[in-house]
């Protein structure tokens, strides 16, 4: 069965520092991959998605993620953290042609002034 | 184009009562998904519906939980005889196809 693992339930960075949130998936066939952001008491907002086109995917708010098949990874990065980036981030995977989306447990990002 | 709407946003029920959660998908979306999120956890798939059809309910508890997506009106997630363990945030997502999903703001259910 497919699974999504997010390394680190909490990540803390200083404002202006690099943000790196890790995500690994388990699947024999590369799935579609997504990153979502959730602000307190809100639903999930799609940041970016990988659907087997370019391996480097750019999303909203300056985030990007790189699909690495050899590492079965899809880590999320942002060069310079902003206070407004503090939120919970979820990595998710879906088999191509399927419909069931599997979510990781989430990583809460803290941004220090 | 309005986003996915869910109501109520907060729902308090006593043990044994029924909870009805509503989800209105985005205009033109015929695919609806329900997820449950427990504190400090990710979202867990519950059920996938298309208009008038349940496509996959493998994530739904076998008892007390049911879902529908009628031809007219919102999708409903119904929990009968709620217990404390049902307290969670329930999210609905809609999609025009089987690709990316658009999430509603969620309903936070508290069972007292």
Give the topology:
The complex is a heterodimer of chains A (113) and B (112).
Chain A lengths: L2 E5 L2 E5 L4 E8 L5 E7 L5 E7 L5 E3 L5 E5 L4 E6 L8 E8 L6 E3 L3 E6 L1
Parallel strand pairs in A: 2-11
Antiparallel strand pairs in A: 1-3, 3-8, 4-5, 4-9, 6-7, 7-8, 9-10, 9-11
Chain B lengths: L4 E3 L2 E4 L5 E6 L6 E7 L5 E8 L2 E4 L8 E4 L6 E5 L8 E8 L6 E2 L3 E5 L1
Parallel strand pairs in B: 2-11
Antiparallel strand pairs in B: 1-3, 3-8, 4-5, 4-9, 5-6, 7-8, 9-10, 9-11
| Shape, principal axes of CA atoms of chain A | globular
Number of helices of chain A: 0
- Rg over CA atoms of chain A: 13 Å
Kindly state the number of beta strands of chain A: 11
| Largest β sheet strand count, sense and barrel closure of chain A | 6 strands, mixed
Mean pLDDT of chain B: 92
The CA-CA distance between the termini of chain B, in Å, is 37 Å
Overview of the molecule:
In chain A, 0% of the residues lie in helices and 56% in strands. Chain A is an all-beta fold and 113 residues long. Chain B is mainly beta and 112 residues long. In chain B, strands 2, 4, 5, 6, 9, 10 and 11 form a 7-stranded mixed β-sheet that branches. In chain B, strands 1-3-8-7 form a 4-stranded antiparallel β-sheet, with no helix packed on it. In chain B, strand 4 and strand 5 (43-50) form a beta hairpin. In chain B, 0% of the residues lie in helices and 50% in strands. Chain B has strands at residues 5-7, 10-13, 19-24, 31-37, 43-50, 53-56, 65-68, 75-79, 88-95, 102-103, 107-111. Chain B is built from no helices and 11 strands. The termini of chain B are far apart. The interface between A and B is medium-sized, with 23 and 26 residues.
């Amino acid at each position: 069965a497919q699974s999504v693992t997010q390394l680190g339930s909490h990540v803390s960075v200083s404002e202006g520092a690099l943000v790196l949130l890790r995500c690994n998936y388990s699947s024999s066939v590369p799935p579609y991959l997504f990153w979502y952001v959730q602000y307190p008491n809100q639903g999930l907002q799609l940041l970016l998605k990988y659907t087997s086109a370019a391996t480097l995917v750019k999303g909203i708010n300056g985030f990007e993620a790189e699909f690495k098949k050899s590492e079965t990874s899809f880590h999320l990065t942002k060069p310079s953290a902003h206070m407004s980036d503090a939120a919970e981030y979820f990595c998710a995977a879906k088999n191509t042609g399927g419909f069931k989306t599997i979510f990781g447990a989430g990583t809460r990002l803290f941004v220090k002034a | 184009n309005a986003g996915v709407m869910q109501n109520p946003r907060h729902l308090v029920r006593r043990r044994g009562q029924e909870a009805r959660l509503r989800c209105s998908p985005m205009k033109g979306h015929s695919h609806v998904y329900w997820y449950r999120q427990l504190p400090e956890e990710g979202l867990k798939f519950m059920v996938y519906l298309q208009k008038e059809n349940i496509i996959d309910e493998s994530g739904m508890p076998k008892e007390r939980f049911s879902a529908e997506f009628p031809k007219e009106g919102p999708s409903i997630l119904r929990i009968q005889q709620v217990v404390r363990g049902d307290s969670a945030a329930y999210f609905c997502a809609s999609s025009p196809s089987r690709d990316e999903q658009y999430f509603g703001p969620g309903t936070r259910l508290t069972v007292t």
